[in-house]
Batch of 2 targets.
Target 1
Amino acid sequence: MHEMSLASAIVNTVVKHAGDRKVTLITLKTGGMRQVVVDSLEFYLGFVARDTCCEGAKLEVILVKTRFKCRPCGEEWEPDLPHFRCPNCESADVAIIAGEEFEVDSIEIDEEEAACTAPR
Amino acid sequence: MHRTKVKIVEEALDANNTIARANRSDFDRSGVSVVNLMSAPGAGKTTLLEATLGGLDLRVAVLEGDVQGSADADRIAAMHIPVVQLNTDGGFGGECHLDANMVRSALPAFSLDDLDLLIIENVGNLVCPAEFKVGEDTRAMICSVTEGEEKPLKYPLMFRACELVVINKIDLLEHLDYDLDKLLYNIDAVHPDVPKLLVSAKTGEGVDQFRDWLTQVAAGAPAPA
């Protein structure tokens, strides 16, 4: 059910930018810290995109690897487990420098095909 | 026919965050502090509120989020505490979380100006509520000792998206093969230094500390993450 809400959020974001032009491809960036099941997201996108300019659009997902940085010592690493302690100095002051993304990166628009008529 | 690529780069949950900020402004204007209370189903959110709210010297109200029914809201209403039930069963069998817009739709039912504290009891779920801000000042999550010690590693987003972890049902520890130190270690790995409270909503152990925490929140502390 999580993915249905996320799919709706994607469609709403795309509709805002596409206006009434037909969208053929949605490219999404999602980070390793987000708990997104891509197959499930694609499935729900098929439903929530109906009667919008995203109907029939393909989804392309770019997965962004999680990357942490220790603020005190500057160590950077890609964690296998969500452990927020620096492996170098044990500090808990750790920043997530990549992996929290959930953004519509780009869309591909069909400039000449029939426009969508039912904005969300 | 030709296709054009359009660069967007926009956080897909921006719309939710915008509404969450509007909720937050309304809360701030009314001087009410708001706690988003989250957990897995059955961890004891409502039972903890029942144990806590009676002795709380604050003007408090509760917003109950559930997929269906009003069982939890009925329990809070029985304590003569203002409560509003939000059901999320409009979609494919029901939304698994409250979002900012759902919370916004319920706000007219409260006299926010007459409240010190609003507790939003989210839908029981360890994934989705962590993703959707609703305009809260602070978030608390409950994990109970009948859940596994590995839960923080399996649901890191939830264990990070909170300013307090309440470990509930500690009265059961003596009956369980449960490694509390391992849970504490895993919480610390995912969210170092997050405050933790050991509580039994049933026996009342630790409930005073949770009440103190709520009182501090109502007084304007701690700051949200």
Target 2
Amino acid sequence: MEIQCTKLEKAVLVKVSGRMDAENAKQFQQTCEEWIARGATHLLVELSDLQYISSMGLSCILAVAKAMQNKSGSEILCGLKGLPRQVFEMTRLIGLFQVFDTPEAALATLP
Amino acid sequence: MIRRTIPAQVDRLADCCAFVREGAAGAGLDPQEMDKLDLVMEELFVNVARYAYTPGEGDVDVAYSVEAPGRLLVELADSGRAFNPLASDPPDFSRGLADRPIGGLGIYLVKTMADSIRYEREGCLNRISFVFSAPVNSGAVNPGQNSGG
């Protein structure tokens, strides 16, 4: 799994590539928690190059969403496709998130 | 069945998935389906590594056999504390973000993706078996791995 973060004007773009599994999913959560601690209000999690996610990855994404909600912010998912999208649909988590095709589309909705 | 004993440690997950992928290749499963098989194996293997034993102790005996082209039978057995993960309640999908539990999705995914999954307690063993069925990658079936027993 590779994580690339880019601070934008309205949000932090967190691009996750590869495989998010039980061994590495916590790295994603820790990265996001560091941005939350630094005052980020919106996290755009870009998943178009994510090939694989297991329940541990889902748990970490959900934990970040809860933390953002507690800060009156949001975690927005972009580019969800393939097996990760199927997994979000099977677990009905997809209905709990704002989901966009691209970060640009998500950014256009932010104040 | 073809068997391998793997230490029940999360950092051995890749070994577990690679071993079962050998069986999946023997069953001619489409490579695109391999990630789904990995997902089922991860949820079951990590469950044992985290909950069956004192962390860092114990093994998982993993076995597979090719039932037919596109059908792989997989078993995981451990000698940890008796626990039937399949008995867990399904997730409550009606809950919103604030009330949705962080965990509990892994076994639901396993039940969704695997066929004929069952748990048995045999003596001091927990044994889970399932069938993974998927489209066949035409021409890829290796008869040399198509052996039961």
